[in-house]
Amino acid sequence: MRSGFGLYIHIPYCLSRCHYCDFNTYRIDAAAVEQYLEGLAQEITLRASAMAIRDRQICSVFFGGGTPSILHASQLIGILDHCRAAFTLEDGAEVSLEVNPGTVDLSKLRTLWEGGVTRLSVGVQAVQDRLLHRIGRAHTISEAERAFWLMRETGFSNINLDLMFGLPGQSTGDWSETLDWAISVGPEHVSAYGLILEEGTPLHQAHRQGEIGLPDEETEAVMYRMAVDRLRAADFEHYEISNFARPGFRCRHNLVYWQHQEYLGIGAGAYSYLAGRRFFNELLPASYMGAIAERGTAVAGGEQLSAEMLRSERLMLGLRLRAGLDVETFKDVLGVEDLSASDRVVRLLDDGFLRLQGGRVQITERGLLVANELIVQLL
Ligand code: SF4
Hints:
Layout: E1 5-11, E2 13-14, E3 26-27, H1 30-48, H2 51-54, E4 57-65, H3 73-86, E5 88-99, H4 106-114, E6 119-125, H5 129-134, H6 141-154, E7 159-165, H7 172-185, E8 189-194, H8 202-208, H9 217-233, E9 237-240, E10 243-245, H10 252-258, E11 263-266, E12 271-274, E13 277-281, H11 285-295, E14 299-304, H12 307-320, E15 325-326, H13 327-334, H14 343-350, E16 354-357, E17 360-363, H15 365-368, H16 371-378
The chain binds iron/sulfur cluster.
């Protein structure tokens, strides 16, 4: 896998807010968008003037949000062109854009394709309109399917589908249908995440008030297992706990994060990791734009990661990858000379949650279902 430096660009606008979402995003407002794009352009220019970044080769640009595809294609390509002029993009750099069905048509997709976007990530989540409606998605499954085929017609050959399990009222049969559909349309990449009830979201509130029921833990585990088995059987590589790719189509941008490589985040609330320091921008778009205009930087805070923090992060991120961590890194992270000296590791190996394979420590099939708990035990 190539090592690299990633560039993330945050577009904090959506058509409406999904009931489970706690991301830094707001209902779109055309006047605010124009100003925000000016802020992005200024931040890109300011960042590129820093020596440490100017000379870096960027392997991936990722437009995330929010819903980047809600903007006009010319606005998105304008930002991308600005990045190309300000930074050095590797030949063949991955340029990803998050898309929501219902926000793209053929003409927009053509402009994105011709402008250099190479990968689209589509938020589908489920194929039952009743479930999409219940979680507040602003699209139907037929819109999602239509968007997918328009992308193919345009020429996009690297498409991810985001799917979710553990939704209110979702049965294993519903999830099975969703997986069947995803496999049948034939994307290059699938992300399958379990719903997380974030405090303060309408879904969290509805659950607390007993208005909605969620699949129990056992059912969620069955759903996860179904995703792993079905996608693998359809020749997807299961390369990260929740991510599956056709050979050659792993998401380079997410690999930057999982392999603990450096990245620069542009836009409201975006995080960066550079020279051992993690820092973040002003969260609200208005504060972000104000900070750039008044202070010449949008950075609102950050910290130098201690050796301890770095070790924990390498462990958490590295073990999420099915390839795991090489034994030497693993020993270094745990601060042991010999794996047999760690009771925790010996127990997890003996119980079949971890395994040693080809000089690497990996989470086993059995461990996948409890990966987060395993990692916590090791820290
Ligand atoms: S589309 Fe994505 S970012 Fe926007 S509200 Fe829904 S989940 Fe949140």
